[in-house]
Design a protein that fits this description.
The protein is of the alpha+beta class. The protein has one helix and four strands; from the N terminus they run E-E-H-E-E. The longest helix has 13 residues.
Length: about 90
């Protein structure tokens, strides 16, 4: 077991993950009538097309919830003792 330091007060930043290999946003839509959902996709168009087809097959289903997942990364801010170790 390793003993590690606990930093009680330190500044951190959070922003979109731009590290190499990080995923971009992921898009999905969900019908608010029946809760059926599109597949998730890295492009917004396939879920939008799914919603149009879903309404075509179910004319009363016209409301949709857009679900957009973005990935974030927390990094030590300047002044944080771990700042120099940040990737």
């Amino acid at each position: 077991m390793t003993i590690r330091s606990v930093i009680r007060m330190a500044d951190w930043t959070i922003k979109g993950d731009r590290t190499p290999g990080a995923s971009g946003p992921v898009y999905e839509v969900e019908c608010t009538t029946c809760l059926e959902a599109s597949d998730a996709d890295e492009r917004p168009r396939p879920p939008e097309d799914w919603a149009l087809r879903h309404t075509g097959h179910n004319p009363g289903h016209r409301g949709y919830r857009a679900i957009i997942m973005s990935f974030l990364r927390v990094t030590p801010a300047p002044g944080n003792p771990l700042h120099q170790e940040a990737p």
